Every structure is written in structure tokens, then in C-alpha cells.
């Protein structure tokens, strides 16, 4: 399935983060996803989606909504994953709900959006600028579908929906090591907080990392999800990439597929970058 690169700005009575929700709704619907709810009439705009999975026969439930405070000058999005959809239920009490905030902006947002049948990945450039990231949908489990049928991942920038502006210096992308703003649903219904390799290891993506390009060719390391002693799977289309001689928004082609390089908020160390696959 495809990707889309563009920007949104405030206008027509809508702020930029609200328009970002419209972009996701339109793009998902045009590429085989079902829009279960899109409500832009309330203060909090809401979007609930159902993805068909890579098989085309699955039901994967995710959502996004806006939340903001004019006095505190934050205008954010929420990433959400669910285990089902009840039309009469409010957003936050949909079955199995897990929510993670993502700082955004009321002014211009540049975005990179990509999806396939089972997951959606979004990166946004906002404010000063900084880069904010989101992952919604299934991971690639290291198990048969009958063993691990619903490996739902909710990856945002915040734990819950706190009053956090994009200028906050503590928040971080969900992929970096073990963070509570990345959650993986297990078969027992619990939302695990997995550690993400290679950021979990000092040698590959930590203090002693020596990973760099080789004559301009960069290795892409899979983002593997670890819970305790268990290797659960890996993220779909998101890879660790070295920041050595690399720059945010670089694009590269590896194995016939295109990727864009995104950084962790405003950080630009060697280990503060990932590569997002731009699905075709």
C-alpha cells in the first residue's frame, strides 16, 4: 500500500492538528481501511478505523483523536489501539483501549504517512522544529497467527494524554529502548511495555555504539520487541539507522524500497534516528 508526504495548515475553521486527523481518515479510507467513526463536530475530534490485515480478512482496530489547551499552547493527537469497536461507546472506553499522546501543533505540520493492511506509521515535523512519531497496528510476531493472533502495538510519544507541549525536552520516540509510550498487547489481554532492540544494547545503539555507514550505505536494523526473556516480534516498516553522517528527512533506497530518516524530537546524536519505510 502507498505512502503520502505533505503538510497541513490551519484554515477553514480547523487547526492543523485537526486537519491532520482529516488527512489520516481520507488516506486510510482510500487504501482499503474502514472508517468506523469520524467526528469533527466536538471539541475533541475523533477517528476510529478498522484495518483488514495483510490477509484482507482480519479486523484490526485503531484510532486517533485531538486534545488541546489554548492557554497552555498545546495541540496534540492521541494514538489508540483497541480489541474491538462498539458504536455506542466513547473513544476511551472502546474495548481494550490503550492511549498514547503525540505532541502536534495548531500551525503548520509537515508529515510522512505510510500504511499497509495491518499498521499505520506517522511522523510529523512541528514547531521549532521537532519530530514526533506514531505507530498504530500490528507488529510482525515471531509466532504463528494461531499462537499470537493480535500483536497490537500502540506507539506514541507520551504515557496517556498528559498536558505536554512539543517543546517539552523529556518526551521521546516510542522505539528507543524500553519506554512506557510503546505498548504491545499480549494474548492474555495485558499491554506489555517491551524493550526495543537495538536501542536496548549499548554496542549497537547505545553509549558505545560504533554503527555507521559503509561508503554511504546504511544498515537497517529491525526493531525487535522483547518482554523479559521472550522475543515477541518486530515492528513493521520501522528500523534503527545510524545518525553518523546522516540527516533527518534524508531519503534512501535499499533493496528496491524507499525510506525516510526521522529523528527523535530535537535530538541528533548517532542513535537518535530511525528509518520509516515508504510503502509503495
Please write the string of helix (H) and strand (E) elements.
EHEEEEEEEEEEEEEEHEEEEE
* Number of alpha- plus pi-helical segments: 2
Rg: 18 Å
Please give the number of β-strands.
Answer: 20
* Percentage of residues assigned to helices: under 10%
Based on CA inertia axes, which overall geometry fits?
globular
Question: Terminal Cα separation, in Å?
Answer: 5 Å
- Give the mean pLDDT: 96
The helix-and-strand class reads: mainly beta
The major sheet is characterized as: 8 strands, antiparallel
* Overall tally of structural domains: 1
Strand content: 35-45%
Low-confidence parts lasting 5 or more residues at pLDDT below 50?
A: none
Describe the structure in your own words.
The structure is a single chain. By secondary structure, the chain is mainly beta. It is 7% helix and 42% strand. It is built from 2 helices and 20 strands. Strands 10, 12, 15, 16, 17, 18, 19 and 20 form an 8-stranded antiparallel β-sheet that branches. Strands 1-7-8-9-11-13-14 form a 7-stranded antiparallel β-sheet, covered by helices on one side. Strands 2-3-4-5-6 form a 5-stranded antiparallel β-sheet, with helices on one face. Strand 16 (221-227) and strand 17 form a beta hairpin. The radius of gyration is 18 Å and the shape is globular. It starts with a strand and ends with a strand.
Précis, in short:
The protein is mainly beta.
Ordered list of secondary-structure elements with their pairings:
Blueprint: E1 3-8, H1 16-30, E2 34-39, E3 46-51, E4 60-69, E5 74-82, E6 98-103, E7 109-115, E8 119-126, E9 130-138, E10 140-141, E11 152-155, E12 177-178, E13 182-185, E14 191-192, E15 195-197, H2 202-205, E16 221-227, E17 230-240, E18 251-254, E19 257-263, E20 273-277
Antiparallel strand pairs: 1-7, 2-3, 3-4, 4-5, 5-6, 7-8, 8-9, 9-11, 10-17, 11-13, 12-15, 13-14, 15-16, 16-17, 17-20, 18-19, 19-20
Amino acid at each position: 500500500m502507498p505512502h503520502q508526504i505533505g503538510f497541513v495548515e490551519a484554515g477553514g475553521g480547523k487547526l492543523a492538528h485537526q486537519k491532520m486527523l482529516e488527512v489520516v481518515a481520507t488516506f486510510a479510507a482510500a487504501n482499503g481501511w474502514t472508517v468506523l467513526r469520524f467526528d469533527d463536530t466536538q471539541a475533541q475530534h475523533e477517528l476510529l478505523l478498522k484495518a483488514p490485515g495483510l490477509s484482507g480478512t482480519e479486523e484490526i482496530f485503531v484510532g486517533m483523536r485531538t486534545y488541546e489547551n489554548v492557554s497552555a499552547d498545546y495541540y496534540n493527537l492521541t494514538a489508540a489501539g483497541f480489541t474491538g469497536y462498539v458504536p455506542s461507546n466513547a473513544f476511551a472506553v472502546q474495548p481494550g483501549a490503550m492511549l498514547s499522546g503525540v505532541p502536534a501543533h495548531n500551525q503548520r505540520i509537515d508529515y510522512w504517512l505510510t500504511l499497509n493492511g495491518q499498521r499505520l506509521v506517522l511522523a510529523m515535523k512541528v514547531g521549532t522544529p521537532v519530530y514526533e512519531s506514531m505507530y498504530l497496528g500490528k507488529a510482525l510476531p515471531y509466532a504463528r497467527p494461531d499462537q499470537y493472533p493480535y500483536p497490537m502495538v500502540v506507539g506514541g510519544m507520551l504515557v496517556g494524554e498528559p498536558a505536554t507541549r512539543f517543546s517539552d525536552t523529556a518526551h521521546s520516540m516510542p522505539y528507543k529502548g524500553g519506554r512506557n509510550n510503546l505498548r504491545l498487547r499480549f494474548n492474555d489481554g495485558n499491554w506489555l511495555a517491551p524493550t526495543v532492540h537495538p536501542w536496548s544494547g549499548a554496542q549497537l545503539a547505545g553509549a558505545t555504539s560504533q554503527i555507521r555507514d559503509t561508503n554511504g550505505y546504511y544498515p537497517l536494523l529491525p526493531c525487535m520487541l522483547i518482554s523479559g526473556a521472550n522475543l515477541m516480534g518486530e515492528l513493521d516498516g520501522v528500523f534503527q539507522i545510524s545518525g553518523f553522517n546522516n540527516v533527518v528527512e534524508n531519503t534512501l533506497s535499499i533493496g528496491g524500497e524507499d525510506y525516510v530518516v526521522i529523528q527523535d524530537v530535537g535530538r541528533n546524536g548517532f542513535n537518535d534516528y530511525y528509518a520509516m519505510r515508504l510503502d509503495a
